[in-house]
Amino acid sequence: MDAVQKKDRRKNFWSIFNFAFANIGGSAVYITFGTYFMVYVTSAMFTGVPKAQANKLIAMITGLIFIIRLVEVFIDPIIGNIVDNTNTRWGKFKPWLIGAGTISSLLLALLFSGIFGLSRISATWFTIMFIPIFITFDIFYSFRDVSYWGMVPALTEDSHERSLFTAAANFSAFGQNIVTIIIVPVVTYVTFVFTGSHNEGQPGWTAFGILIAVVGIICSFVVGLGTHEKHNALRAVTKQKTSLKDMFWALAHNDQMLWTAFPYLVYGFGNAATAGLMFYMFKYVMDKPGLFWITGLIPTIAGFFTSPLYPIINKWVTRKTIYAVSMCSMILAYILLIVSVDNLPMVITAMILYYVPQGFIFMAVILTLTDTIEYGQLKNGTRNEAVTLAIRPMLDKMSGAISNAIVGWVAVAAGMTGTATAASMTPGGISLFKLVAFWISLFLLVAALFIYVFKVKISEKKHAEIVDELQKKLATEGISGAQAADNTTAQTEVTMPGAKAATIAVAAPVSGVSVNLADVVDEHDHKGLPGNGIGIQPTEGKIYAPFDGQVLMLFTTKHVIVLRSNDGLEVLIHVGLGTVNMRGEGFINHVDSGQSFKKGDLLLEFNRDKIQQAGYKDTVVVLLTQGDKVVQTDYTQQEVVSHGDELVKAQLKK
C-alpha cells in the first residue's frame, strides 16, 4: 500500500479512536445527570429532613429543572451558532470541548454533593444556590455536547466515514451503561465505608459524582487534543459569521432537518420517561433492586455489537429500514412489559428488545441530521454544522426535562420515595406507573416510527448526490475568496483601472493525446463539453501538479481535484467521465484539501482499466474555472503531450 495511504489510514484510525474514547465520559456525565440525579434527589439529597418538607423540596427541584431546561432549550441553537462562529487557531470546537467539558464536570460533582451538604442545612440557601449552579452546568454541558457532535461533519464530508465516527462514538456510549452497572455498588460501598450503613447515602453519591467528573474531564481533553478538523472548500466558502436571524431562517427552511428532528423528539419523550422510571420498576414494582444492574449490562453487551455492525449493515440496508425494524423491536418490548412486568424472564426479554435497537435508532437519526447540513447548504446557501447538530442535544434536553418532571411526579404520586418498599405500593400506584412508563411511551414510539418513515427523504444515496452537486457548483463557479484550507486568509483580488493581466503557464497534468473540448465524447456518447479548457486522452494513470500551488478541494469521490496556483489561477482536473459513480474505487489520492505542492508532484493515481471496465471514459479534462477573470488562453497545438509539457498559457486579471 502507498505510504501516503497508510499514513492517512493511521491518522483516520486515531482520530476515530480519540473521538470515540471521549464519549465514554460524555455519555457517563449525561446519564448521571439526566437519569440518576433525580434518583439521588428522591433518595438521599434530603436525608434527615422531615418527609413533608423533603417532598416539597423534591417537587421544587423537579419543577425548577423542568422549567429551566425548557427555557434553555431555546438557547441551544444560539449555543450552536456561537460554536459555528468561533474562529481560533485551535479551530472552532476544541476550546469548547476542553473548557466547557471541564467546567460542566466540576459542577456535576458539586451538585451531587448536595452543594456541600447545603441541601440538608437550609432549604432557602440551597434553592438560591441551586438555580445558578444548575443553569451554569447545563449551559456548559450544552457547549461541550454541541461541539462534540457538531464536529462530525468537520471531520469528513463522506457519509460512510461519518457513519464510522458516529458508530465509534455510539459504541463508546457504553459509558452510560457502566454507570448503570456500578452506580448502586459504588454508592452503597462508599456509604458503608463512611457510615457503616448498607444503603445509598450522601457520602456514596458525593464520591460517585466526583468519579464521573474526573472521567468527564479526562475525556474532554482526549477529544480536544486528539481530533483534527478537516478544512476544505465546502466549509471554507461558508466561513463568514452567521447572524441569529440568518441562523433561525436557515433552520426554519431546512425541512428535512425538521422532519428528522420531530420524530426523534417524540421518541425521546417516551424513551426518557421509561428510562427514568426503570430503577423504580425494579425497586418498587418487582421488588428486585439488586437486579437493576441488568439494565446496564444488556445495553453494554449490545453496544459491543450494534455500533460496529451498523456501518456493515448499512452497506446493504438503508438506514430508514434499520430505523423501522429497530423501532418495531422497542414497540414489542413495551407490549411485553405491559403484560408481564412481574415475570423476570419476560422482563429480561423485554429489556433485550428495548435496549439493543437504541444504538441503531440513534445512529440513523444522528447521521440523517448530519446529512441535512449539506442539504441545507445546497438549498439555502448556509452551512450550519454545530447549529444543526445542536438540534439533537436540544431535543435530548427537552426529553430529559420531561423525564425529570415525570420521575419526580410519579415518585411522589405513587409513593415511591424515601423508605417506601414494594410491599407498601398500592394497586393505584402500580397502575399509574404502568400508564406513564409503558402505555404513553408505546403510543409515542408508534407515532415517531410513522413520521420518520413517511416524511424523511434524506437517504444515503440522496446525500451523495447533494455533496456531488455542491462540489460541482463550487468547482465550476470557482472558489476565489474561499478561505484557504490551512486557515490562512485567501488572496483578495482587486481589479484596478488599467491593471495588467498576469500570464500563467499550466503544465499538462497527465501524458496523452490532447483533445479539444468540442471533440470530447462523454460517457453517454454525447460529443462536446462546455467550459474553458482542454481534454487529454491519457496513456498513463497518474495526475501530476501543473504548477506550484495548493489543493483547494478534493472531491470525496477523488475523481475531481481543484487547484490554485501561487499566482491565483484556479484549475479543475476532472479524471474520467461518469467516474463519479465509482465512488472513489480505483482512485488513490496523494494529497488532500489544503495541502501545498510543487510543480510535478504526484497528486492522484487512477486505474484506467477499472474505469473502462465499469463502462466509463478515462478522459482527463482540465478546466479554468474563474470565468471573466481569465481574459485570454493559449492552448498547446501539440497532439501528444507528456506530463510537465506546457498545456496552456492563461492571462489572469490582477
From TrEMBL:
GO cellular component, one term: membrane
Family annotation (Gene3D superfamilies): Glucose Permease (Domain IIA), MFS general substrate transporter like domains
Record's keyword terms, sorted: Kinase, Membrane, Phosphoprotein, Phosphotransferase system, Sugar transport, Symport, Transferase, Transmembrane, Transmembrane helix, Transport
The PTS EIIA type-1 domain, residue ranges: 522-626
Matches recorded under Pfam families: MFS_2, PTS_EIIA_1
Family, as annotated: In the N-terminal section; belongs to the sodium:galactoside symporter (TC 2.A.2) family.
Annotated compartments: Cytoplasm
Any one of the GO BP annotations: sodium ion transport
PANTHER family from the UniProt entry: PTS SYSTEM GLUCOSE-SPECIFIC EIIA COMPONENT (PTHR45008:SF1)
PROSITE patterns: NA_GALACTOSIDE_SYMP, PTS_EIIA_TYPE_1, PTS_EIIA_TYPE_1_HIS
Regions that span the bilayer: 12-37, 57-75, 96-117, 123-143, 164-192, 204-225, 264-285, 291-310, 322-341, 347-369, 401-423, 435-454
One of the record's GO molecular function terms: kinase activity
Protein name (database record): Lactose permease
Entry-linked CDD domains: MFS_MelB_like (cd17332)
SUPFAM superfamilies with a match to the protein in the record: Duplicated hybrid motif (SSF51261), MFS general substrate transporter (SSF103473)
